[in-house]
User: Fold these one by one.
Assistant:
Number 1:
Amino acid sequence: MSFAAVLLVLLGVAFLLVRNRLNDGAVPRARSLLVAGAPRTVLAIWAHPDDEITSAGTLAAMARDGAQVILIYLTRGEAARDTGYGREDLARVRGLEAQAAGATLRAHAVEVFEWPDGGLSATDGEAVKGVLRKRIAQWKPSVLISFDERVGYYGHPDHVAAGRWARELAQEDNSVRRLYQATLPRALIRIALKLVAAFRNNYPTDPAAGLPAPTVAVPVARFATAKRRLLDVHASQAKVIADVQPGYDRLPAWLYYRLFDREYFTLAFSR
């Protein structure tokens, strides 16, 4: 065997070892989160434009499999810092970015509401749920996707509020068959606590208070291009994205999303 061939084999083995350390192979994999025999409509409820990055490959997969994907953002994201925009200009820009994200993911509809960014935990939850309840009645989704209501992915109170309302809505008597919450396995949480400022500054020190354990992983390598394009869509949040997706701009998308080749969810509600 030539030196070049040996080197390729060693690089391949190293790649597989790194990928295995980043992921939890014990979590069952699924091509999508759609429910067999149920309407193929998915409603994703997020706090801010760009939150869908946590689940972008999964949303793209379901849209390309013929599902109706509806993206809802509860705020315009106007409180983000270090963007170079004033609040109103930022709200307008991020609204446009949300629409572009929907186009990138082939979403059927995108809606951006104007509850206060950074203030969802103090917002009238019944008023928010009243509006969302109408959207559920309109679209009749069988699947809801949102954040968890315990830590909100990395400790953001707006995410927590969105996750709590999503669970409460899922538990009502409506079309929703399943609620999935975006989460991470322990290996990725450990890495995030070392590399990602949002996790270091906000994630709880007690592991029991952190993210729920994943129950399903969706392979997303085939949507590497869409995921990378989505990051570029949210240009106003370039600094935040560089933090939460460390190294994404230093590796080609096909390689980056073969290392980080799964999106993880916990099944938070099922009927």
Note: The chain has eleven helices and seven strands.
Number 2:
Amino acid sequence: MSKKPKPPLIERLKPFVAPFRVDGSGEFHLRSYKTSERGGLDKGEGEKILDANRKRLSDLQERLYAQDRWSLLVIFQGMDASGKDSAIKSIFDGVNPQGCEVTSFKQPTIHELNHDFMWRSMIALPARGRIGIFNRSYYEECLVTRVHHDLLDKEKIPRKLITPGIWQERFADISAIENYLSRNGTVILKFFLNVSKKEQRERFLDRLEQPAKNWKFSMNDVTERAIWPRYMAAYQDVIRHTSTPYAPWHVVPSDHKWFARVAIGSAIVSALEELNLRFPRVDKASQEEFAKVRKALESEGRSGAGGATRAVKRPAKRG
């Protein structure tokens, strides 16, 4: 009996992508998404998928770079210790760094605060053929700034423009810009690493117990943890209002880091597979030129490494 052909890669990865994708086509309630989901896998199975995704992503990135038409913007958002840094390191391991750039957005500088809230992200967008990774992003301006409303004063916005509707306005601005980017060839994937408060506690304790991880801990992390419900409400509002078919959110279960990486890697590989990326074809004139070069190189090989070498003239000595 002949073996059944394998389904296309996108179909094989669909169980790890579709359940977590939010594109605005239905109602969204954050509480409906479990943080401990494992997609019916055990860790060993997950590691195999993750490794296969890495290899395929490396190949797709090379094609993306060579074709030089599309770009990919990957956005990571999540509470502290949700696994953003380690996910980026693991998923993109093996991808050529020449075609991939990570930008981490920290507290805005004085220079950045002298511009609109999208400015610092816009100047970091990936060029055609490149993958841009945002570790946090312009969405912080609808999350941290919303939870800590006093931060708006530092943005130097005219007071009459700071109204109760400012967050809806920012949602509209972000969606408009993402739509513009998608129409110009930037594929946008957004990931919310959905970790439970209990798991965050365990990871904080781990950071405190291991000297090599102490640097990751800040007392501010504990302060933010105390207002967890406010952050969850802000995330829910962001995802509800900025999920679109051209810039979908993926609410990724992140209590198990290995499964979060499976889901994120599968979504990225699937999105790039849909682009049908190809290496550029060489035109006839170039092929003819290549044939001449090949003939010359083969002829050189037959003549031997020590064959007809040209003498190099030395410049005459002065004085």
Note: Residues 128 and 283 are 22 Å apart (CA to CA).
